[in-house]
Amino acid sequence: MTRIFNHLPGSLLTVLLLSQLCSSVKWLALSHTPASLHINQTQHCKLLPGLISSQAQLCRINLELMQTIIAAAREVKKTCQKTFADMRWNCSSIDIPRDSSKYTPDLDRGTRESAFVYALSAAAISHTIARACTSGDLRMCSCGPIPGEIPEPGYRWGGCADNLHHGLLIGAKFSDAPMKIKKSGSIANKLMHLHNSEAGREALKEAVVMKCKCHGVSGSCSIRTCWRGLQDLKDIAMDLKTKYLSATKVVHKLMGTRKQLVPKDIDIRPVRKNELVYLQSSPDFCSKNDKLGSVGTQDRQCNKTSIGSDSCDLMCCGRGYNPYTEKLVERCHCKYHWCCYVTCKKCERIVERYVCK
């Protein structure tokens, strides 16, 4: 391994060393994998950050799978940050700095934020694999099965369905592997992460919709060819965000002959498998606090006219905000010319923005 390290670029070496220390969703460190690294030899599996031995073994068995999983890691980071862009906690901590030894406590302490990240990660990896089967990027799988039920008149099954079954099977095998290692982490945290990962996959199952393509003379759509496909990951993330907001606080408690996660408030019904759970309360994320994993909201942009979580009052935690102006250059006065192009002018306008004090 030392000989391999000696020939690596400095940035990649840092990521590899970092991967030995991360204590949260380790495989998300794959989002930092250089685009120039193509996984086409078994020794490349040693160069991937954040993998435990069973994940590395899966890499060696199926090299092409890793390109899909790397894509999933990048998608998790992008989708998480976009989904929470309007809230105090904006998922910035999921993009761990290369010079840091571990994820910040908001993802390590068993909070509802870590619950969301685990759920989204599990959903994303299965989602990406299912779609890769459909697109032909994975030779190990192909289109999903044709539904057994007879479609309505004017509809017929066809096309290439997303292979959800394969995505769930391989995704769970890969993403749940770190939580099944006996020597690492507390049992309560492992149970929480396993539950939330399964909740993410349940959200994925609920995101299967019927997609159709029309056929007929002059676009009459007299016949529709349909297949089962998954909604975009951003839509699944929004569903999980709703579950994040209504997540249940649980405790690790002896129930009968073994300890289980049960709601902290005894009058709350048992938690369903598609709901998120957390063990530790979160900070308000108003002020910077490294021990709690809060980066604060100072200098965050806010919306003066909003009454939601992105409002200047809520985002700035009552500290007030500072205005500034920004010049925007936009396309305007567009005209369509026959046939077939559009010409536009460029217009400038000044907009007022606001950032938290």
Description:
It is a single chain. The termini are far apart. The chain folds into 2 domains: 2-295, no CATH class; 306-356, Endo-n-acetylneuraminidase fold (2-Layer Sandwich). The protein is of the alpha+beta class and 357 residues long. The protein has 9 helices and 11 strands.
Outline of the structure:
This protein has 357 residues and is an alpha+beta fold. It has helices at residues 2-6, 10-19, 53-61, 63-83, 112-135, 164-175, 187-205, 233-245, 312-315; strands at residues 155-157, 208-215, 223-230, 248-255, 258-263, 277-278, 288-289, 294-295, 301-302, 321-337, 341-356. Keywords: Developmental protein, Disulfide bond, Extracellular matrix, Glycoprotein, Lipoprotein, Secreted, Signal, Wnt signaling pathway.
Structural class: alpha+beta
Topology, number of strands: 11
Q: Largest sheet, described in full?
A: 3 strands, mixed
Mean of pLDDT:
86
- Number of helical regions: 9
| Lateral strand order in the biggest sheet | 1-3-2
Distance between the termini: 48 Å
Q: Tell me what portion of residues adopts beta-strand conformation.
A: 15-25%
- What is the helical fraction, as a range of percent? 25-40%
What number of domains?
2
Q: Please give the oligomerization state of what you see.
A: single chain
The SSE order reads HHHHHEHHEEHEEEEEEHEE
Shape field? globular
State the low-pLDDT regions, or none: 1-24
Rg from Cα: 24 Å
Pfam family, one: wnt
Protein name: Protein Wnt
Main location: secreted
InterPro entries: Wnt, Wnt_C, Wnt_CS
